[in-house]
Every structure is written in structure tokens, then in C-alpha cells.
Design brief:
- The protein is an alpha+beta fold.
- It is about 25% helix and about 20% strand.
- A hairpin with a 3-residue loop joins strand 6 and strand 7.
- It binds a DNA duplex through helix 5.
DNA sequence: AAAGACACCTGTCCGC
DNA sequence: TGCGGACAGGTGTCTT
């Protein structure tokens, strides 16, 4: 479910409800997520959330005594609900506030995570080595070009590597490479600076428009919502195997790259 | 040091 | 209708 746009949408969606709000209790029904939820998460109780931030696909909820790190994995979702709302399957964690609202975490596949750190969260092992945020000015064609000079790995895997740049998941890697006209199998080290400029432009455009489309989800944040907004935006290649390329009418191909489905037009993308 | 495979888990869809 | 198998939006960790 969550690519960067949904994580961003979730973050913006929960912030107005939980920021400056005091945690009453944390209820853990299923501690076995990707990692065991640590007992130290209880330190969050009776603390006020001072900040809600996103770093990559991690959501950071900071209090005076420490920071909760939350990751949605493949299938996680967050909902702001009344504290007494009936449970659904896979509702693993509730963070209850004194004003009787509840931040509820649901995650069927349990690839998500909820961790606690009392130090500087950016020093946490999971955050420390993360690459640039894709929607910053630092993330440029020149940056990717510099970092890729020695690299023989496929460009799609290179831009999906979180130590290079965070937040580019399988859907948007496919889409951005299509928009930039780059073959996903091409070695990262053999791509020109100009092509990287186009790729970075495409990445920013596709993520930004998806986040804007996610506004639909944002508006519905309190109610049970359907598919995230970005899913409704028209994807050009992802999931389009066998269909005609929107640019040239050649057939969209499907291959596996790093065990992930990779869709592209072999005519447009060289 | 870097690249590739594997692991974690449930739900859904497709072909027989 | 049922069943087996492949696959799904992520990413840390282990093995080469």
C-alpha cells in the first residue's frame, strides 16, 4: 500500500489530531510486527506529541522523552478514530489520547514496525544511513550522476536503494523511468548527466502529483477510506503489461528486476 | 564494498 | 467450488 505519497498523506493527516495532544495509553494487541514492538514504547504514555515528521517512509512522533518510529510496511495504514470504535481484523496497535481520539494502526501483512528511541531519532540505526529526500533541492541529477559513477547495477534498483534516495518504491520507479525515457535495466554508471536531470525531474513530478492526488485520502482521513488517491491517478506503465504504450503504441513489457515486477516500453526507454 | 537473494506475513487472484 | 501457486505498494539482513 504505502509508497511515499501515502506515507506523506498519512503523516499530514494524523498531525493535526495528535500534535500537542497527550497520550493516555498504548494498547498493543499484536506485538509481532516486522520487529517486536519494544516494551519501552510505554514511555510514550503520559507524554505530549511535540512533532510529527516523516523521514523516508518512517513516521516520527516525537515527545519530550523520546520518539516513536512507525513504518507502514507493505500493507499498513493509520486511522484517526473515536476511542470506542469497534475493532477490525489486523488492528494491532491503538495510541489513545486523553481527548478520546485514537490513532489506530492496522497492518495485515505485519511488515510494518513500531519502535521507540530515546536519543536523537536521526541517529537511530534505521535512519542514520538513509539517502536524500527526493523532494528536496539537494536531490538533483548531479547528485545521482556523482553517486552512480562506479555502479553497474540497474538504474531501477539504484533509485530504489534507500541509501541513495529514500521513498521511491516500485510503482514510482517504473513510472519515473518511463517519463524520463530510460530503460530500467540500464547500468546506473552508464547514464549521462542530462538523462539524470530528466530522471530527477520525473521523480519529483510523479511523487508531487501523487501526493496532491492523495489529498482525496487526506480529506477523508477520519472516515473509512478507499484506495489512496495516487492509485487513481493514471499510471502509464505500472501494471500495463501487454497494453499499448501511450507514447508510441508499442507493447509494454514485464520483466523481473531484483525480484520486483518491472514494466517498461522497450521502444521509448533506452 | 557492493550486489543479489532471502526473509518476514496475509490476502487475492488466476488457472486447473 | 476448491485448491495450489504466484504475486502484492518494503526493506533490513545475510550470503556471495
Amino acid at each position: 500500500m504505502p509508497e511515499l505519497p501515502e506515507v506523506e498523506t498519512s503523516c499530514l493527516g494524523i498531525e493535526p489530531f495528535i500534535k500537542n495532544n497527550k497520550v493516555k495509553k498504548i494498547i498493543i494487541r499484536q506485538p509481532k510486527l516486522r520487529w517486536l514492538i519494544p516494551a519501552t514504547i510505554k514511555a510514550m504514555e503520559n507524554q505530549t506529541i511535540q512533532q510529527v515528521k516523516r523521514r523516508g517512509k518512517y513516521i516520527l512522533m516525537t515527545t519530550k522523552s523520546g520518539t516513536a518510529l512507525l513504518h507502514l510496511g507493505m500493507s499498513g495504514s493509520l486511522h484517526i478514530i473515536p476511542a470506542d470504535k469497534p475493532l477490525k481484523k489486523h488492528d494491532h496497535v491503538d495510541i489513545l489520547f486523553y481527548n478520546d481520539i485514537c490513532l489506530r494502526f492496522n497492518d495485515p501483512r505485519r511488515f510494518g514496525a513500531l519502535l521507540w528511541t530515546d536519543g536523537n531519532p536521526y541517529d537511530h540505526a534505521l535512519l542514520q544511513k538513509l539517502g536524500l529526500e527526493p523532494l528536496t533541492d539537494d536531490f538533483s541529477g548531479n547528485y545521482l550522476w556523482q553517486r552512480s559513477r562506479q555502479s553497474k547495477r540497474a538504474i531501477k534498483l539504484f533509485i530504489m536503494a534507500s541509501h541513495v534516495v529514500v521513498g521511491i518504491g516500485n510503482i514510482y520507479a517504473n513510472e519515473a523511468l518511463f517519463h524520463a525515457g530510460i530503460n530500467p535495466k540500464k547500468a546506473a554508471g552508464k547514464i549521462s548527466k542530462m538523462a539524470y536531470d530528466q530522471l530527477v525531474y520525473a521523480i519529483k513530478a510523479v511523487l508531487t502529483s501523487a501526493i496532491e492526488a492523495g489529498g482525496t485520502t487526506l480529506r477523508d482521513f477520519q472516515s473509512a477510506h478507499g484506495k489512496p488517491g495516487y492509485f487513481q491517478q493514471d499510471l502509464k506503465v505500472y501494471g500495463k503489461k501487454g497494453q499499448a504504450c501511450v507514447k508510441c503504441q508499442h507493447t509494454i513489457k514485464l520483466i523481473r528486476l531484483g525480484q520486483r515486477s518491472t514494466f517498461y516500453c522497450s521502444y521509448c526507454q533506452n
